[in-house]
Fold each of these.
Amino acid sequence: MKKQISMLLLLLLCFSTLITGCWDHIAIEDLALVRTIAIDYLPGRRAPYLVTLAISLPADIAGGETTGGGGEPTQLFSAVGATLNLAIEQAALNLSRRLFLSHAEVILIGEEMAKHGLLHILDFISKHPQARFSTNLLITKGFAQTVMTTSERLEVAITEEMIGMIELARYSPKSEPLKAYEFIQKMVTPGQDAYTALMVKSPPLEEEIPELKNEQKPDSQGESSGGEENGDSSSGSSDSSGGGGSKKAQEILTLAGLAAFQNDKLAGFLDSHETRGFLWFLGRTSHTLLAVENPEKPGETISLFIARVQTKIKPHIKNEQISFSVEVITEGDIRSQTGRTEIATPEMIKKINSAKAGAIKQEMEKALHKMQKLKVDLVGFGTILRRHDPETFSSLEDRWAEEFSKLKVDIVVTSNIRRTGLQAHPARPQR
Amino acid sequence: MLEKGKISPRQSSLLLIMALIATSILLVPAITVQQLKQDAWLAVLMGTLWGLVTLYIVCWLGSKHPGQNIYEYTQTLLGKWPGKIVGLIYAWTFLRIVAIVIREFGDFMTTSFMPNTPLSVFSISLIFLAAWAVLAGLEVLARMNEFIIILVISSLFFILSLSLNNWDLTRIQPMFTNSLLSIIKVSFIPEVWAADSITLAVIIPFLTRPRQAFAAGTIATLFAQGLLATGIIAVLAIFGPFLLQITRFPILTFVRAINVGQILSRFEVLVMVVWVAGVFIKASYYLYCACLGLAQITGLKEIRPVVLPLGTVAIIWSFSMFENIGELETAVSNPRLAPLLQYLGIPLFLLIVTWLKEKFDKNKPRRRRNEKAN
């Protein structure tokens, strides 16, 4: 009996430890789910890190209601601090819930921050137990904070909009967003420089094409737009939000181009054409359209669809002289032409093939030239050399950036056009 | 005999697999990649070799002294008191491993999952369970392990297979850039070295078929180290050696990076399963070895009185051994002389003594015949 009572007491003691719960327990209703973190750098300040957190309210997303005054599914909270952690702690003072970073899928980094260097951000991501190592890193031109104020178009929140773009970027070689761990991997690997996609905020097309603008002038005001022709910087956003009720076209986000880094610092930007030129080196340019001039009739354009790409890069070392050969094999169809030339003949296809190969080679050389000018080895020629011949590379490792900038690269492109679509012959008008 | 239960060779093999894989899967990738870059997996294969050497010696000793474990045959070989001292060294080693394992477990949980929870919560709850398991005896421990190992191994295979589409094997090139000497040096780090087979020296007498101990141990060592080498190749193929260097728990980072079609992601909980279950078995197993040793050396009738005291010692030891994670890391990532002696030196010495005794002791054949008659 005595033993049984003591057992019972022991059991009660054990269960009492269970009901206290864990130290780190927190209910989901008390969490503020951070979806995007925008980080800007304000040079010359004591607290230079400007952090903007896009916090989504789970209930609103589930309900899908967007009407009403406070119905915004995403709320922005900003704060400055001497380090990222301090800035986030500061921002948390404005919140009624506890911050939760595990759902932050996008980290937007302002241009100034990227120029200053990403070491602190990457350190933050890899040390923080909540932060995801697979967060997407995006660089913005100008301030990252202003990108966050763009209003969403197709999705419920701006973060979802950006995630959608990042997902789609896989199908178009105009940018190449990297996840945090991929970025760090490229940064720490010798003979390889890091890059990630560029998120650009620009005014809508009607403000860039004068004819369209004149057409629209009578019915909408549009007077402020003259000053912001270059509109990808900060000035645009305040106008669009200040516009209020009047029907002014919203500014749009574009995921195009690359930000190239030397070590952890921004070295320069590649525009979307250069980006594709660069992606040929990685063989990641399938599902894209390429325009070449009709070899028979100059002035007419033929659009080609690239279905498959294969790229092989090989290093060659001859008398201490290092060169690389790049072999690109592409396969694809013809999609359309602006004229009415008979295309589907073997001779014509042969000519188009060589024109296409020439265009690809030109694009690649342009991108390579840009990378060599910036001294960023985004392709990882150094890594390829290291795998091939570790000793030669280790003797060059310290001055690889210099070595890369005058590297000789032979590009050979083979093009195969297989099909010309459903139409056998072009439709020819009578006259 | 202190232990009345018997386990089958298969159960001993599974126990050994758990002891080998439980902590090494989290720590070894970081340690080896730090020093050998993309050749890290070679050190693991090399460590397997040393592990098999230890295993062979241990099994040979076991077959020469049937019915006795290392605490007993040291006394018959070296005399009563020197034998007891060697036995104490082993009990001390096993207890130290319990302490290190508890500390690694606590530090892993606090750094990656529950930063606000004090270390003692993990240590005390783990040792409480481990002591309970030890009191239940070896047979219960082995049977429980048969169930838990399914969880652990299937989680590991699940994680590895999910990551397959991200593998890029060019990242483990160039191969063989490190000198053989540096690979050998890394392979002598206790964690890398498959030295857990030394525990077979304690449990061989409790096997239903002691002759099969070597086969069971070999299967366990090859399987566990093979899995570990695959794990290292997997993390290398995904992150490359230079990114891996900066991570503390590469397998965790690896799992954090898994994202199949935006749906299958965040499998940290599986790492937690591997870690908690594996560490629990490993800590119980080693605590059992230590307790049995102390009980046998001091001539106790049963193991019960020493379990809780040794568990308490292990907890306090785990707190006081390392001030911070930096010290822990340095301690587990460098080859040291003491483990080399414990896992290879002393067994080798015992082997030589047995061999010499057999050669010069003329009474030996008669005694063996008597034993067989019994």
Note: The two ends of chain B are 16 Å apart (CA to CA).
Amino acid sequence: MSSVTDTLPTRPTRSKMSDEGFISSLVAAVAISLFLIASLLVPNFFQWQNVVNLVTNNWAVIALGVGVSFLLVSGNFDLSVGGIVALSGVLSVWFAQSTEGANALSTGLGLPYGLAIACALLGALTIGALNALFVVRFGIPSIIVTLGTMMVARGIAQVITHGSQRNTNLPEAFGYLGNLSLFGTSIKFPVVLMGVLLVVAIFVERKMVFGRITYWIGANPEAATLSGIDRARHITKLYLFSAGIAGVVGILLASEYKSGFSNRGLLMEFDALVIALLGGVAIAGGFGSVIGMFFGAIILAVVTSAATGLVLSPDWQFILKAVAVFLAIVTQTWALARRNK
Amino acid sequence: MSSQSKTAELSVTSGAANFLRNYYIYFVLVAVVALLSLANLDQFALFERGNFLNKRNIINILRVSAPILVVAGAFTLLMVSGYIDLSIGSTMGLTAVIYAMLAINGMPFVPAFLLTMLAGAVLGAINGILVVRLNITPVIATLITLSLFKGIALLLVQDGVSAIKSGGGLKMPAWFNDYGRDGVFLKLPAAFWVAVAVTLVLIVVQNRGKLGKYAAATGGNPTAAKLSGINTGRTVFLLYVIVGVTAALAGIARSSFMSLGDPLSGDGMELTAILVVLLGGTAFSGGEGRVLRSFVGALIIMALTVGMLTIVPAYYQTLVIGAALLTAAATNHLVSQKGKVS
């Protein structure tokens, strides 16, 4: 990606909040006010259970958003995550299905479940490695590479499932992880995992060298290289990290539905990108935060669920997403420009 | 580090590299057609004679190719100027719906055709405003409009129906199919000849016209282009409008061929367009690329996708197109001397 010397954040003085903190609070404020507005308009919207649902229904996209945000901060796109979700889910099913099935779609490799998900994860990481190879070694723009690998990953899933799904002849253990309820509540294991991932990601982003290097690379790739940072290695790690998250998400979704469906995760890569952008992550790199991305996801969730509550046709969601991203980008640019005048 | 030795190596082989860069696409086309003709297609019902180089088959492939052939040229010029449009698929879907709606409500061919082209120009202008005026990164701006146009197209079609088609008291006029299906010259439909004409015009524009030179200058070095007095903003805006119009032509062609206005009929078109343009050797960093080579690239991809359907099941398509995209990008990088973006 091009360098963005003119958007380098000015070092804040101690008394002033950083630009990232400012944007994150702005996004959080917007998310909360949108929720309140929706509560006024939509009957039964203002409920604790609804707040919980806004997060738990979107755990997959939020988890994917973490990897995508880190890559965006480093100045790279990752549009392959939706494809990887489909691929790892389908692979985990195919590896775990027993060997004697009635037809091609019910016959798998018969591996034990633990080994099956390990191999499925390996498949996901292979796509991540492919991304890194093309972006880092060949220097091909990440948007084109990851659009290609998205199709390759989904394409492999379609070939394995013959364009539909595999859901028979699975071992007992298969549906366990995705449907496991924790703490005696309705909160499921994948949601908790997403929460842990968020906390770890925020810690890495704020407090660890790995996170800070990601910002340097995005803010000024040349300067990062000159100051001795191995850019290729770092971006490779980020792509593996993102593909790994997408792999786990795919495996958990496959487990939840007890099926490997080649169209699962369709458009999830766009949603992950959309929530990162809503959350103030800059497309040019070097700016953004995981907290912002999380509230971006809440904004999207509130808007879409409120629209469903108002009985708008589901076709509205595309227009709503477009308008939300447009407004987010325009306001954030405007707010930052005003603040740093 | 190795850039010096690389430059030296390139200058030695630059004659061969140049030749390869200029003409490889034609070799690829010949190779693809030769391979597909050698494959035994007897057992499949799609082609009557079991031969890829059958006249009916060639006509059929060229008919289906009209949409991608008509956008390839304009898309090339846009990428030459260093910009991208991810919304062409949605533009195509929306204009297909608009065209079908106008026709089914009784508007004659010519005004419906012109109005749909105008709609395409407006959609392109929206992209242009987002990118040029509001300074939003092209990828994001056109992702926004991708979502927006698709949403509008879906809303225009009534709930419970998947596309604009005959039924409920309304009937598609008899002429609706003619544009995309009826052979007017060499048994090929008007849609194909419009694509050829658009490509010819754009070749002239690229070689002789100001717009072509400005596009190359903008993509090669935007700052230098601005300093030498080129209005890069206007160039880019105009290119977005042209891409919008060609996407509308593609929408009309597709809609007429399928005789319905399907809001999703353009899905994935942006990927095909990128694939075709990269295959044609356009540098993704901007600055270089040829309209004609993208046209040939489009022929290759259509021959491959249609031909492939006769050899492997349809569910292999996504994988093959994805792999082709990656291969084209990698080859493009190897062949192009300018493949050094990070």
Note: Chain B touches chain A through 45 residues (CB under 8 Å).
Amino acid sequence: MIKGNGLALCFALVLLAVAPPPGLAREPDLSAQARKCLQCHAKEGIRANFPEDGESVPARVVPAAFKVSVHGILDCTACHAAYLPEIHPKKRFRSREQFRAVTTSACRGCHSIGQIRGNPIHANFLKRESEGEAPVCTDCHQAHTMTPVSGGKIFTNEKQYCMSCHRYQMDMICRNKEKIHLKVDLSELESFAHDKLRCSDCHFGFSQEEHPKRTFRSRRDYTVASSESCRRCHFDKYTKTLDSVHYAILSQGNLNAPVCNDCHGAHGIARVSHTIKGRVLTTQKCRKCHAQVYEMYSKSVHGKALLSEQNQDVPICIDCHTTHDIQNPLTLEYHERIPQMCGNCHANPSVVTKYGLSTDVLKTYLADFHGVTLGFYKKQREKLYKPARPIAVCTDCHGTHSITGAGSSGPPTVKANLVKRCQKCHPDSNENFPNAWLFHYKPSPSKHPLIFIVNAAYRIFLPVMVIGLILQVLLHVWRYAVNR
Amino acid sequence: MKRNRDDGKRMIRRFSRLRIFEHWGIVLSTLILFATGLSQRFWHLDFSQWLILKMGGIDNVRWIHRYAGVFFSFELILNVATAVAGVVRGRWSPSMFITRKDFTDAVENMKYYFGLDDHPAKCDRYDYMEKFEYWTILMGGFLMILTGTVLWFPILVTKILPGEIIPAAKALHSNEALLIFLINALWHIINAVFGPEVFPLDTSIFTGYISRERMAREHPVELARLEEVVPAEPPAVGSDHPAESPVATSGASG
């Protein structure tokens, strides 16, 4: 007998050891009590009515869904404490509000405040609960279908999961008491470039399983930090920004320097647009910080054409300053690139000829003193030394953002301005000096006839002389050969 | 004045030490000026850019060009000053002056080349080709000095003259440079190196001596005067007055 008992005990132990832990391989059975409740509550259309406000909530529980939920092993009365299969008061709740409040307190029976607060996402709700406006637990976790945190299968996609909370007005409080709104407008997100992304693609570290608690010193801190996620996909752009003046300022500790989000936005990231609307919008992005420059630009020949004529040919900020690797425009290197920048349009017949502008401007500049010197300085920088002397480029005479059309002021004004400009580098020069520059004109009988005549005379005299000399040499050699 | 080479050829002194030295100075300065100047004129060529970078960049090249220009100017002034002084003091004959004989020589030579005459023009100390070369370079040299100075001090110049003088000076300077370069490269080098009579090199400007044989062929009038032999033909109108001493003749403005 004892022996038989011992064998039975051993068999039982082996069974226990081999059997998988409950909840993994074998779904728990509903409790007897639950089965009893479900005899009524599994019926379709069963609702609980609230007499005071006339509202109702569904009282149906789907047995299969409840069975696989994390609470499937519980008795119904574990949460619905006021009910017993034997005692079922007919009108338990006066109103929907009261029902919601009681529901939340039911959860607290098992889940302590400490445990709830353990998830940082709840901290905000608990705070707002004290102000009487927080959503109740079941708004997010559902009533009878909540799954274990680690295996949530309720939401068909992550976005839906995140939006279950982030559709609400929520704030994250920074250390400096600034508020960051956490409500996301899904419609905005879905109508822009990133509509196919999951939340966690950008909000790295967050998922249906994890929601780490993060605090930031300020709103700006948060913006700067969130721009870091862009590089995970846009690494080429990110590396370019590392060379930019904006990044240089940022790395010096100035958080006002623009980061990705400042120009591109956060959830409403627009697709790149080369339409006139897109180009105008781009200038507005720069305007946010560079208002003064924008003012000048908007009054310039380029700005006016863009804003009032919707002209697509004129340059906008990024055409000269580039987008991501924006350089400090006050450096010598940048200054020396200007003729090429202007030449991109002004030496391109398809862009400027229709406005009656000459495409010779770049060529005539590059062939003159300043242009030749500049060309060599650029080459020398790579191989020899970097000359510290700035050389006059297009913008030195024509202006930069406030540039006006060459025909907008009379020649005397142009010359008077030019003398002042020349004197900056050539202090002793007088009003004759600017005429040493041919104003982009090629010498012709009407423009700069003196130079035209000199060149023409040599163009005739040189070949004549060379041919004469060669003939003399050839005749001499020929006679010498004949005489021998 | 005369010496015999080892092979028994009779040599005649043609250039004094001053002229040899002067020639070396001109060779050196013009080589530097051409290298630094033409590379600036043809700045867009790869070779020019390579050369300028090798010489330490455009600023360096411009300074080298200016200093070489100053050196060249001194040489030119020295050349003219010594010639003028020599002629004024009566020690040298103005053998480099262009005379009517040079034009008749040129015509005569052309006739000879085309077989219409049986002998070349009988030239004096400097033939018409040497004179052409000398004067184009001398006058061109002064034009270069003038325009070069204008380009060096544009602010000073425009205080008095209109601004357009600067680009005009630039046009003159670079065109004239090309002209002088072509005369030097094409004419002078071909004559002094590849000339059939002198190949592989006319050494007279380096040694100071020329063979009597070449003198007889190229400068018969001067040879006759040196050897106090009556020339075959009387010297044409305007040719050099016979100098007292051949040594003095050799130092004339060449």
Note: The CA atoms of residues 159 and 183 of chain B lie 35 Å apart.
